[in-house]
Amino acid sequence: MHWTPNKVTLLRVAVGFAAVSLFGRGAWANLLAVALTVASIALDALDGHIARKKKMATPMGAQLDILGDRMIENVYFTYFAVIGMVSLWLPILFFARGAATDFLRGLAMKAGRSGWGANAMLETWWGRMLVASRWSRGLYAAMKCLCFCYLGLELALTRGPVALVSGLGGDVSTTIRTGAQVLTWATAAFCLARGLPVFVEGWKYFAGSVGPTREVKRATQLAA
């Protein structure tokens, strides 16, 4: 079978959904879900590597990769929010940030800009560094992987009647819980930071699309 970046992206989404479906089905199923989570994040790096090495990068592939990121983020954080391990505001924040940045990217594409390459919508050095650089993408992927795995391990080891480690003291449980909160909100903060350049530089495309609409509406009113 000939593997393309898009096929790898679809595979990692399927692996991510399989992992989430295993959470809550027992301690060992939770551990398997953690292993699949690591595999899903690794596949995220693999699709980009294949695209660069084989020169198969395309605008559609870039959009599919972003869509895969959105699906993985939301399904994990939504699951952990539903079972009460993280705040419900966490998946809401990720969803809202993703919807807003994707909307602005869509407007930029209509204006002839792309999300990557020489014609990218991000023109400032700090915007490209924070959003498109390898270190930023790698750090963000690592933070999400660590976050999902930490929550999965906490679920497997300390939560529920089938927890592998039971009878932990109150201080230990509090420390584990605090670690989860710090890690998840640090990941959310970096997510927002990476979205900031898109908001700042993408606003002009939104303003440019609203301006002509207002002019047309005003002309229609005058004609009436």
Folded structure, characterized:
The protein has 224 residues and is mostly helical. Helix content is 79%, strand content 0%. The chain has a single domain, classed as CDP-alcohol phosphotransferase transmembrane (TM) domain (Four Helix Bundle (Hemerythrin (Met), subunit A)), CATH 1.20.120.1760. The protein is built from seven helices and no strands. The mean pLDDT is 84.
Brief summary:
Helix content is 79%, strand content 0%. It is mostly helical and 224 residues long. The mean pLDDT is 84.
Oligomer: single chain
**CATH architecture classification name:** Up-down Bundle
Largest sheet: none
Distance between the termini: 62 Å
Share of residues in helices: over 70%
CATH class: Mainly Alpha
Contiguous helical run count: 7
Using DSSP, what is the number of strands?
Answer: 0
Radius of gyration: 21 Å
Shape: globular
The fourth-level CATH homologous superfamily is CDP-alcohol phosphotransferase transmembrane (TM) domain
* CATH topological fold name: Four Helix Bundle (Hemerythrin (Met), subunit A)
Beta-strand residue percentage: under 5%
Number of spatially distinct domains: 1
Label the structural class: mainly alpha
Uncertain residue segments: none
Mean pLDDT: 84
How do the helices and strands follow one another from N- to C-terminus?
HHHHHHH
